[in-house]
Amino acid sequence: SLANSARVYTNVTVIGRFVTVEPLGDALLERNYGPANGSLFRASPVKEGKAPPECRSKIFGTLQKDNSIACLKRNFTALRGQDWSRLERLTQVLQDDPEAIEQILDVDRALWMLAFNNVLVNLQSYTGRYSENYFLYYDRDSGTFKPGPADMNLAFGSFKNTGEGSDLRLKELETLSPVLHQDNPAKPLISQLLQVDAYRKRYLAHMRTIVQDYFRTDRYKERAEELQRMIRDEATRGQNPYYSQEDFNSSLRKVIGSKSRIPGLVSLMEARTDYLKSHPLLAIVPPSIQEVSVTRRERFAKERVDEFAIQARVDFAPRQVHIFYRFDTDSDFEQALLADDGKSKDGEAGDNLYGIVLTPPSGKEYVEYYLVAENAKAMSFSPGHYMYERHSHTLTEINQ
Q1: Tens digit of pLDDT for each residue in 199-243?
Q2: Closest CA to 96 of 74, 131, 64, 62
Q3: Is 271 within 8 Å of 299 (Cβ atoms)?
Q4: Please, how many CA atoms are within 13 Å of residue 371, restricted to the half-sphere of its CB?
Q5: Which of 129, 246, 265, 365 has the lowest tally of Cβ within 10 angstroms?
Q6: Are 39 and 85 in contact (CB under 8 A)?
Q7: Is 275 exposed, middle or buried (CB count within 10 Å of its CB: 0-12, 13-18, 19+)?
């Protein structure tokens, strides 16, 4: 969801500075998935009271299989559409047929969400005690659920319970396991996916990308300081302030609050970044994808190039290099293998330069793609944040 800061009035009286957050609805769906044509569910479990006799107790929004759709409705709210049977089917597949999970779940989006929750210690989410505050959008065009975070108000360790034991202390938040719940059947979205070697590698690759892009580079700190400067005056001296000026000014570095004990954002994430970058699962060297290029028409050549010959240098013992590609932005991605055999416009065989030739259908002059390389223990992507940014070329471009 989009969010911003707003000064709120009642008539002409300033009430204070608030955060406004875009609701889960059609605008969000259309921006991320195209025309909104499916059902949207939010995990909003009933936490108090006794469950009806036919329903399982305390499964919250974990997507554990329950006994009926009526039971499912205790833990999820339909914000758009009523495809409850599809949601029930998702819980059944997770329990009874996890090998078929890609038929009903966008697994990669799920892995991104879970990686995000873990790195940012966002425990008021699927990853925490109640498995709440995430959404599942059933996209009828693809026939799959696309998950995402619905509320990040208590990220960065402000909600501290994983569902296993008491609330975590600061040191435990800093050193939260990157594979938390991997052996926990009560969290099937994590435990079932991380049992699959390829999914586990992909999940850890996403964690590396988040840590590298935002936390090892201090981008998050620069953004937090920018936001702090933007709202400081009204947040501390305006109407109805939530925090004292002292707490506000020290909130990036110190624990504040007498009851909720909110960790200092920067101090928490500096320690967490150090922990994650040296963790054995994340310190493994993944394949390195470099020098991604496409063969262009040679200068003064008479013949026009009508195919895309794509190459990339991949080091650190890759076992496989895949390309996910499409010839227009409205199509699904197709998958193919790149080769280092000297026959795929890839240079000499065995030189770590991988290649593939893609021939667009008649009338198509555009290709969009990203690369995935896998070695024995890790996986990497190019671009790293391929969900929003991908390589692309046009025939016009390569013929100039």
Answers
A1: 999 999 999 999 999 999 999 999 999 999 998 888 877 777 778
A2: 64
A3: no
A4: 27
A5: 246
A6: no
A7: middle
